[in-house]
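Model: Ready when you are.
Researcher: Fold this.
Model:
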Amino acid sequence: QGAATTQEFYAKNSRWTEGLISASKAVGWGATQLVESADRVVLHTGKYEELIVCSHEIAASTAQLVAASKVKAEKSSRNLARLQECSRNVNEMAANVVASTKSGQEQIEEKDTMDFSGMSLIKLKKEEMETQVKVLELEKRLEGERVRLGELRKQHYVLAGGCEDAPEDGEARPAPAPRRGILKKPPIAQKP
């Protein structure tokens, strides 16, 4: 498309080329991370959640690779059709890994039955209040981690060249503080 050689084409479309290479590397990196996470889980040193995150990362990176390819490919391209078919297979396999991981996690984790029959009314109320405190602490921590995840994604996007206003010298500008009001959940109704 307007270039005599493949090298000229990639040079002429350098931003697109960088995006395509970045997406390809992300797929490979995700696969490596998935294998390493699976090894750790088998050795009981890793977390099942790592497998789930890696599976989602691979599926997302593959979708990004397909999207980048579609930008410059001809609609009748056989290679694009093959890539899209492979992407569907990757998504299906990633979903299978997630489902298998959750199933295995449920089978292995010990689930203690909650028996409160021997507790007095005062002890039950105390346990209930302590549990409410834990729930609120975890929700606050979860909100903080979501904000952190958003900032990490913004920075990744900037470093990957996704922002038009990114500085040319490669230095990342500090991200603006998130608007807290948008991210807050409504308060949970408490029992009297």
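Researcher: Now this one.
Model:
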Amino acid sequence: LLKVLSRIDSILQSPRAPPLIFRPSKGTVQNYIKETGQGRGFEHLPVTVAMWADQLMALKDLHRSLRKLSLELLPWNTADPQDNRESIRVEDLQLIADAILEELENKEKNSQTSSLTTLSAIVSHFQKLFDVNSLSGVYPRMNEVYIKLGEMTNVMRNLHELLELDSSAPPTVVVDTVGKLCDIINKNVTEQVQQLLGTQDIHSIINKLEEHECFFPPFQALIQDLLCLLEISNVDDILPAVQNLK
């Protein structure tokens, strides 16, 4: 028994042993060891061994939790040679943790790659839509599109207010309303021209314009000749000049 205790004590005091959580007691075990002449240091062994036994049991629970996590992240990796083992080693847990970390790193790299691919596709689509030949022209064209969009938004808002339309009215309604107004204005202009020329017939308007084209050029030539003969420059001075010639 003393050999076993000495062996356990040497293991506990080795550099590879974990630090002791429980301090050595100063109770009857230590006194017993002193009385038997076997030296000091063995009184903490039962507590330490019990603590290690609890830790070994906890390794199984930790292994079970890591396996559940591994099945969630790595559903294709169902084989586990440690399932049938009664004892679980730290190396077994480390292998599962490394596999999970590797999978997470691969997913992160793939997500970054897909993000770059998506961004490249968006830029290419923007270049195609707005006729941008180079990447350096993307930002200026974006600014231009933003400015034009703001101007069009302001125009549509003003038209909605002027035409007394609801703000939710689509552009097609705005265009139709403007077209109706243009028809009304054109109709009024036609009526005013007809009243001015004293006719309601479009053919009569055409005849009057043709008569004007026949009459006006000779009349204009006559006026120019009179201005030259009378040595005047104003049409209003023609009549007084002619009267002076009498």
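Researcher: Key takeaway?
Model: Residues 201-245 form one domain.
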